[in-house]
């Protein structure tokens, strides 16, 4: 059985709650990602997605907002020793596309659906997770 640490991305770009959403949007563009973990001194504080920026800032004509005004603070996390089946099930049940990985209170990586599909997890498990996530109208991260 594979563990998250075998498939997670460890070179994770982060931002702080005080960063501006325009800078984070540019980081998303440059890194070709749809979500950025929000950290302070290595500790995960939340997650900001491209959807958060559009719905909580741009649609309100507030492009000068700080990340803290748009980020999601409630999130599911995993640990490096969590098995990928458990991660896929958690992502499906919570309808999330990305799972931040925490060790001793610090962000050490992130697992996305594509990581599960490319790792040891079966195609059926990744497909199940995606189908469960795609059924939801609101996906947070």
Automatic annotation (TrEMBL):
The superkingdom listed in its UniProt entry is Bacteria
| InterPro entries on file | CBS_dom, CBS_dom_sf, Diverse_CBS-Domain
What is the protein name for this chain?
CBS domain-containing protein
* UniProt-listed PANTHER family: CBS DOMAIN-CONTAINING PROTEIN, CBS DOMAIN-CONTAINING PROTEIN CBSX3, MITOCHONDRIAL
Q: Which residues form the CBS domain?
A: 8-63, 71-128
Entry keywords, A to Z: CBS domain
Q: Which organism is it from?
A: Salsuginibacillus halophilus
Quote any Pfam family the record assigns.
CBS
């Amino acid at each position: 059985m594979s563990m998250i640490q075998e498939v997670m991305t460890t070179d994770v770009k982060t931002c702080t709650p005080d960063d501006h959403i325009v800078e984070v949007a540019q980081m998303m563009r440059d890194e070709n990602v749809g979500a950025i973990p929000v950290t302070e001194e290595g500790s995960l504080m939340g997650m900001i997605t491209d959807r958060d920026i559009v719905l909580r800032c741009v649609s309100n004509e507030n492009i000068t907002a700080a990340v803290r005004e748009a980020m999601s603070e409630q999130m599911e996390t995993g640990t490096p020793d969590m098995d990928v089946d458990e991660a896929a099930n958690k992502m499906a049940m919570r309808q999330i596309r990305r799972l931040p990985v925490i060790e001793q209170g610090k962000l050490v990586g992130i697992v996305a659906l594509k990581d599960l599909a490319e790792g040891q997890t079966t195609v059926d498990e990744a497909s199940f997770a995606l189908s469960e996530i795609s059924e939801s109208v609101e996906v947070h991260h």
